[in-house]
Amino acid sequence: MRTDAVPVRPLPLTSEQAEAMLQRHVKKHHIAIILLHWFNALVWGSELLTGLALISSPLFRVAPSWYISLVEGIFGSRANVLQIHVALGLSWIGVYLVYGIFGFRTYLSREVLQHEIALDRDDVRWLIVRTQRILGWTSEPLPPQGIYNAGQKLFAFLVYTMIPVVMASGVVMAFRLFGTQVVGWAVVVHFGAAGLVVSGLMIHVYMGAVFPEEKPAFFSMITGTVNELYAYSHHFKWWTIVKAEEGVWDRQHDDETGHPADIAGPTEPVRPE
Amino acid sequence: MARYAMVTDLTKCVACQACTVACNAEWGVPAGYARTRVRSTPISGTFPHLASGVYVAQCNQCDRPPCVEACPSGATSQGANGIVEVDKSLCIGCGFCLDACPYDARYINPVTKKVDKCDFCLARLERGAEPACVTTCTAHAKYFGDLEDRHSDVFKMVYAMGARRMETSRVRVGPNVYYAGEQARADLVMAAFPPRPPRLLAAGEAWSRVLKPLVLAAVGATFVGQAVAFFNQLRNGEKDFED
Ligand code: SF4
Ligand code: SF4
């Protein structure tokens, strides 16, 4: 397919086209991102489970006391729970520092962030329709999305802003920096930031692991690829970019072979980095 | 289980500070800080009828300790013997307990940045010794023992001789350090150093009153939303994504 022939809005596909697209895979995530994602998931999971058991005052605690005793029992003592919580948190910060220093231009540049977290008009509409569809109020089609849908963008924004907050307040507590007033507020901020992420995390996990329409997104975090039909129907704007790049690639081949490329295109298209 | 208490006879105390010195040495308390302090009230009355009192203050191992409730990390806890302990490996130095204590009995160690306070010399008790201040008191003004033991000095002083707690009508947390001696002296001390109502730092208030309900509500609402979505999903059956 040629660059100028890439459609601007998703068109209905014939069943053969759909079948062919289902068989083809498009690369979505780099291996570094996949590893970071699961490392992050592991850390958040363990830190939440241990962290919940560290707040014991009836004034502040959110976990029932049986849960707190259970976690203490598993680790031997409360002091161990705290030490593990802090050690894991510090290693997490270490990994992020390495990632931030070496991957800054690739993952944290302005364009990438705009790509990954800035909402456009379609995104806002998508959020409304998506919610209504889940609740079964409408069957209106979802507006076309870029490489990440609006829900993922919102969650990424939440995580990108809260991770530094959680890290900084954690370090303040672990090393009791800047006096009691600051440490006192750090406890509160740490709890609040983690609480915010948890509400987002619940939706994230549900959409990724339970919600049927997004199953390919879940597997893409393991294999790194999604099938082209999913890209076409769920991330149409991203699909057009992929196709456009393929178009450039194809045209060079057109020149060599003299044959126009069909909609199928090559099997391993390059993803814009 | 024992119910430990201490009685200080304010008439006998000569304000020599030997207890403070012994305590500081025993526990390596940094200069400028103290687990127990001796304070004199301002002189009152007109010559020749002057009066002044001495107050020997320390952690009271309260029956209803507000410091335990305020400690988010569980570092401060109360043992079955009534002694309120600080587990240094859990303390994060947030200072919530300092504000909660009506007797200002706690301090933050400037080196470790963790809380420290009197614990009736628990480590000494465990090896059968009395608290350092009791052993050292030059005037024999301090008594230590078990309120459940009818033959102990403290039992007699509290239940027969009317040693009193430093409580006011506003602050009743059940301190276990009692004060014996003339009523007039005790009244002077109470007037000069009354316990203040327990406070919760603004951060603690924000946490317990605003943030905790808010976070629980947000997580709860998300959960309900997902439950609804999940039942819809079950009802409609699993559709593949290419709808
Ligand atoms: S005197 Fe203060 S520190 Fe000691 S138990 Fe009572 S409230 Fe807690
Ligand atoms: S400073 Fe006080 S309230 Fe804070 S963790 Fe330490 S003992 Fe608990």
Mind explaining what this structure looks like?
- The complex is a heterodimer of chains A (273) and B (243).
- With 273 residues, chain A is mainly alpha-helical.
- Chain A has eleven helices and two strands; from the N terminus they run αβααααααααβαα.
- Helices cover 70% and strands 2% of the residues of chain A.
- A two-stranded antiparallel sheet of chain A has the order 1-2.
- The radius of gyration of chain A is 23 Å and the shape is elongated.
- The model of chain A is unreliable at 251-273 (pLDDT under 50).
- By secondary structure, chain B is an alpha+beta fold.
- Chain B has helices spanning 18-27, 66-70, 96-100, 122-126, 132-136, 153-159, 183-192, 202-236; strands spanning 4-9, 37-40, 54-57, 76-78, 84-86, 107-108, 115-116, 142-146, 164-165, 177-180.
- In chain B, β4 (76-78) and β5 (84-86) form a beta hairpin.
- Chain B starts with a strand and ends in a 7-residue tail after the last helix.
- The model of chain B has no long low-confidence stretch (mean pLDDT 85).
- At the A-B interface, α4, α8 and α10 of A face α2 and α8 of B.
Q: What is the chains' assembly state?
A: heterodimer
What's the Cα radius of gyration of chain B?
25 Å
Biggest interface: chains and residue counts?
Answer: A-B, 49 and 50 residues
Report on the biggest sheet of chain B.
Answer: 4 strands, mixed
Distance between the termini of chain B: 70 Å
Total number of strands of chain A: 2
Instruction: Give the count of helical stretches of chain A.
Output: 11
Low-confidence stretches of chain B: none
Helix content of chain A: over 70%
Low-confidence stretches of chain A: 251-273
Mean pLDDT across the residues of chain A is: 75
What profile does the largest beta sheet of chain A have?
Answer: 2 strands, antiparallel
| Radius of gyration of CA atoms of chain A, rounded to a whole number | 23 Å
Structural class of chain B: alpha+beta
Q: Can you write the helix and strand succession of chain B as a string?
A: EHEEHEEHEEHHEHEEHH
- The overall pLDDT of chain B, averaged over residues, is 85
Count of helical stretches of chain B? 8
> What is the succession of H and E elements of chain A?
HEHHHHHHHHEHH
Structural class designation of chain A: mainly alpha
